[in-house]
Fold this protein.
Amino acid sequence: MVDRTGYMSLCADVPVYSSDASMTSYWHKQAVACQKSQDIEGIIYALTKALEFQPDSIPLRTALVESLYLKGRFNEVREMCNVTLKQAPESAVLWKLLALVQNENGEADKAELSYRKVLAFDSKDFLAHHNIALLALGRKAVDEALLYFKRALALVLDQKEFNIKISQSLNTGFDYQGAECLLWETLVQLASAGVHAFVIAGALLGLIREGKLLPFDKDLDIALPFSEMKHAVQCLQGQGWILKPQALPLINPVALVHKSTGITLDLCGVIPEKATGLVLGGLWLSGVPIEWLRVTEYPSVELVSVKRPEGVVWQLSEPERWLEALYGDWKTPDPFFDSVICANNQRGFSILSECIACNRMITLLREGKYKKVMPIARYCFENSDDVLYKKVFDAFDWG
């Protein structure tokens, strides 16, 4: 995942200097008019015509490249960036657009180098910092990723790159009724395949406290022994589920998307810890120190087989114990609680947890969902003492 927002055509800011100034000015004005009506194809046509009269104009070429990117014409973007950067090697905008295209094509190493070029010429470009952080996570350089996430978060605050006027509605468009039907069907399929899968987290909270899935939720949550993960994924792939592309190379959980409904499912593997008798879950990367991982602790698993109208499923014998471990006071609704960042059962506040928290705050701030930021910023400050998180918390009137 790479942050692709914030790249809008700047054709209105293009200066015109040409011996054919009248024709260049005419097509430039046409491009500006098209921009006002959000006619990207019109902008591309007008800028292309303007460049016929002023072919060496870097601002015109840059505006054209931006418009081509917005239309998804990535091959042309790459070609124009490579040519124009020879004339304007210090253009942070062109390096940024080239990086975006490189990332779209799966060229993560090249994209990261291009983003570093952006920072060489514009050290306060928060999007470049953010995307370097995401790419660093992709190559499991978690400590480096945290450094860039914090820089990006600080710049978002300093530059006020957020909109606090956006509605704070909790409506996610989640079809919780259809999702619940799919949840039980999926659990029946997994149980029939010999997988000991059971409902956890937000899905369990809704079913136990409300008698239904939470309407402001966004996905389904199922736990299972990590040793059964591979078999479970194979089973679900034969039942209309496909693997969902992830920003992180996580081995746990595994995210899938239901092809016909678009509903997302998180398969959360758990393992028993003999020394404590606890069950461990969380977000796991391979090939990094275990203390870097986000590890969660649950009570021992005791499952019961339950016959439902859809078929036989596995359920926790004492679901309240798992809810208390994760949420603490699970009986009191708190729609702004973030169970990934602020989970009560985290084993410490790991560097991966902090990376995910920073990424979440950057995204939520830029979406204007600042009320969801408050508990995350408070949790981060209480568990790390980094004044950056207090700065996030103090940036708003939370009343």
Notes: The longest strand covers residues 264-273. Residues 176-334 form a domain with the Beta Polymerase; domain 2 fold (CATH 3.30.460). The first helix runs from residue 21 to 36. Residues 240 and 259 are 6 Å apart (CA to CA).
